[in-house]
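To whoever is on call:

I kicked off a structure prediction for a single chain this morning and the downstream step that reads the tokens threw a length-mismatch warning. I double-checked the sequence; it's 272 residues and nothing unusual in it as far as I can see. Pasting both halves so you can look.
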Amino acid sequence: MCVSLQNPILKSPRMKPNNVHDPKEQPFISHLVELRDRLLKVVLCVLVVFSGLAAYANEIYTLLAGPLLKHMPANSTMIAIDVASPFFTPFKLALVVAVFISVPVILYQLWAFVAPGLYRRERRLMLPLLVASTFLFYLGAAFAYFVVFPLVFGFLTAAAPTGVAVMTDINKYLDFVLTLFFAFGVCFEVPIFTIVLVWTGLATPKALAEQRPYVIVGAFTIGMLLTPPDAISQTLLAIPMWLLFEVGLLFSRFFVRNKDYEGDCLPSENQD
């Protein structure tokens, strides 16, 4: 009678030694490590920019408050309701500006993380879209500061009843202008949204063109919801949104998905 000296537990195909790792878990862990490293780079970039802006926090806030201060009555000033607002509000703005300046680095880290998993055609298209979206977001914020703010604050300060002193809290003013910055920055991304819809095959330029009346109504509705209750600011947001939709519709014709696209493309790691 022959007796096997091998351990039957280790010999079983269903059992693995504790020191053997599943190879499928390695790519997932490596992706998490890469994501952590890129997030740390983003945080480091924001902190470096913030450290350079912190010394000029008060000057930055004064520059931001310029459109309102120009339209306030001679005897009116901005006020701070909370005790710590004069100290924390400028630093809050400096942090937001640091994130705002770091947007290209943030988008680059996002691009570098997802690029290896994209097709070659997708990589060629996505990078210009990221650059264009960054530019349009900055353009929307600049449009809000140089065009919308003077008109809106001129209207709001002139609409104050007789005997009411216009004195805005610095923290509430910051929240108000940041909301407008974000609203105009996102709304100026309409061409990118239009191109992505066509690129992914969810819509066609012809189908989007047929929805033009609804887009115009939606633009004025969004303008009504995101801007102060006056027709000037609503129109200043709605008309650019409509025009940007037309621009996106024009350029989306160059991004129509090819029917043979999936069959012709290979993953990026298998390409030169």
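Update from on-call: the warning came from a stale cache, not from the record. Cleared it. Sanity check on the structure: The chain has a mean pLDDT of 80.
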